[in-house]
């Protein structure tokens, strides 16, 4: 019960990582308000958890009036807001020549402007209460590039820097802000995005996941529930002196040299010769 007595607002709480975090927070004693664009999806999650522990608020994180309503709903439900988790995001692909200006703006609006608006709406109640923890769900793609994903990767890179800016500006008010960067994680959103990739590779989505994991040191893709533990830590008192951190949660993927990994995929081994001669 490491979050006993805390109240959290989680955007994108109706599916994937957001749902997994919600379930874990409730297990740890927190009251949670979840938001998303589909009320029916939010209601399904709320019904699956103990009565009185989860509230819902349908809305769009790109609309500031909706963001303020989400915060107000959380305050009415729990009396305060200790934790804000900016999780709502989209991940459409398309290289620069293929990506429409409209889709570029939509990705940045949801993935970057959304966290800005949600944080702006939540800061004053947190400050009045003496502090709080903002947790931004970023991605390994915010620190590395993915082929054909300029909008997504740029939005997540911006989110990482926004995290540091909030930590700097509001640390004196006891507001902590940290980012979590998951690598490949099994979610509905990722599975849907990988469907055309699977068709192009002549396999199914599971086959794509296996291929993705082949050079990850832990040799597997994360489950959504594996992202929830680090969020419990960042929301709780054990991380009371941590702010401005951008934390990788990628199974070690970021340490891999892709050129060397490609040789290993071909059955070759690196470093067999002595170069001292």
Structural commentary:
With 277 residues, the protein is α/β, with parallel strands linked by helices. It has a single domain, classed as Rossmann fold (3-Layer(aba) Sandwich). 46% of the residues lie in helices and 15% in strands. The protein has helices at 16-27, 39-47, 64-78, 101-128, 150-170, 188-201, 205-213, 225-235, 258-265, and strands at 7-11, 31-36, 54-58, 83-86, 132-137, 175-182, 185-186, 222-223, 246-249. The strands form two sheets. A seven-stranded parallel sheet has the order 3-2-1-4-5-6-9, with helices on both faces. It has a two-stranded parallel ribbon with strand order 7-8. β2, α2 (39-47) and β3 (54-58) form a beta-alpha-beta unit. α1 (16-27) packs across α8 and α3 (64-78) runs parallel beside α4. The longest helix is centred in the middle third of the chain and has 28 residues, at 101-128. It is globular, with a radius of gyration of 20 Å.
Task: Spell out the key features of this protein.
277 residues; alpha/beta; Rossmann fold; two-stranded parallel ribbon; 9 helices; 9 strands
Instruction: Examine the coordinates and then state which fold CATH places here, giving the name of the CATH topology.
Output: Rossmann fold
Rg, nearest Å: 20 Å
Order of helices and strands: EHEHEHEHEHEEHHEHEH
Strand share of the residues? 15-25%
Principal-axis shape:
globular
Termini separation? 61 Å
CATH architecture: 3-Layer(aba) Sandwich
- Give the proportion of residues in helices: 40-55%
| Name given to the CATH homologous superfamily | NAD(P)-binding Rossmann-like Domain
CATH level 1 class label: Alpha Beta
- Could you report the average pLDDT, rounded to the nearest whole number? 94
> Which residue ranges are poorly predicted, with pLDDT under 50 across at least 5 consecutive positions?
none
Number of domains: 1
Strand order of the largest sheet: 3-2-1-4-5-6-9
The tally of helices reads 9
**How would you classify the helix and strand content by structural class?**
alpha/beta
Sheet of most strands: 7 strands, parallel
Number of strands: 9
């Amino acid at each position: 019960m490491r979050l006993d007595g805390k109240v959290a607002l989680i955007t994108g709480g109706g599916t994937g990582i957001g749902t997994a975090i919600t379930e874990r927070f409730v297990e740890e004693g927190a009251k949670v308000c979840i938001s998303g664009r589909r009320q029916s999806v939010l209601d399904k999650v709320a019904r699956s958890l103990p009565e009185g522990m989860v509230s819902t608020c349908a809305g769009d994180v790109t609309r500031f009036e909706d963001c303020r309503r989400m915060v107000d709903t959380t305050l009415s439900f729990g009396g305060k807001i200790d934790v804000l988790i900016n999780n709502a995001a989209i991940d459409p692909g398309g290289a620069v020549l293929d990506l429409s200006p409209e889709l570029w703006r939509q990705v940045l609006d949801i993935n970057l402007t959304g966290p800005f608006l949600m944080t702006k709406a939540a800061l004053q109640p947190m400050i009045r209460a003496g502090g709080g923890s903002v947790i931004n769900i970023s991605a390994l793609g915010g620190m590395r590039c993915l082929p054909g994903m300029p909008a997504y990767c740029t939005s997540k890179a911006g989110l990482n820097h926004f995290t540091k800016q909030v930590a700097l500006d509001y640390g004196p008010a006891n507001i902590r802000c940290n980012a979590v960067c998951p690598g490949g994680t099994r979610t509905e959103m990722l599975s849907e995005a990988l469907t055309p990739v699977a068709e192009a590779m002549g396999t199914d989505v599971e086959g794509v996941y296996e291929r993705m994991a082949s050079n990850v040191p832990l040799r597997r893709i994360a489950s959504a529930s594996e992202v929830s533990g680090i969020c419990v830590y960042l929301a709780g008192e054990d991380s009371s002196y941590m702010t401005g951190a951008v934390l990788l949660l990628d199974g070690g993927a970021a340490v891999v040299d892709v050129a060397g990994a490609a040789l290993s995929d071909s059955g070759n081994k690196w470093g067999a010769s002595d170069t001292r001669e």
